[in-house]
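Supplementary Data S3. Sequence and structure tokens for construct A.
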Amino acid sequence: MTRKEKKDLKILVLFTSVYCHGLHTSEKALLSGLDPQLASLKRYSCCHECRQFLLYAIQRRINCPLDEKPACKHCVVHCYRNEYREKVREIMRYSGKALIKKGRLDLLWHYFF
């Protein structure tokens, strides 16, 4: 797995964790069942629903058929099912705004591109 792929997955997990902690009140648990290369992502926690989404998204990202993977919003091959595609839009919209309000300006690049 390349450094860019790991970074993309880290951002996805971070955004999902922020979304989950902001909107879901159910019990949170640390991520588990990840590829050993993604051990650094185990420190994030989320509810069962968000964890299921993340495991699906990570598996799709790892199995991406494109050699040079673009950002998902610019991709010509949509890997996610329709309901997950809408969910990732909702997660990115909510978390991007929340993180920018908290001063994470380094994420602006990913948010706009």
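Construct B, processed identically:
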Amino acid sequence: MNAPLYTIGILRLAGSLPDPTHLERVDGMAELRAPTCGSTVRTEVQLEGWVVTAISQQVRACAFGQSSAALVAKHAAGRTKEEIAEVLASLSAWLDSRGDDPGGWGFEALAPARSRTSRHGAILLPLRALLAAIEEAGG
């Protein structure tokens, strides 16, 4: 018998995704879409000296994408573009079974998605949107 697509832990994590918030100042914004599944993430970012101080996300994705966005919302503050890019690279390699470390931030909770490549785009999307928003801000 196959394991369930969504575990209770993944559903709880998806449910913890904060609602979009009004940022004091929007320094950069990006809206990206995952072509394999149609998930979309719109991210607004507030920066201080090229360090993320706050983000707001509007997420339309499956539970894996929502869970990933919840982890990004929880861990992005205080990070630089380089640190976020490093997490994205580690997570991507882990999802593709090219690495053993999902980059921290709790992404190991999404292990059931490793064998479901059609979900990888939704999982990577919140990090990609955050990086794009930082780049749009000039970072």
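The chain has four helices and three strands. The CA atoms of residues 11 and 129 lie 22 Å apart.
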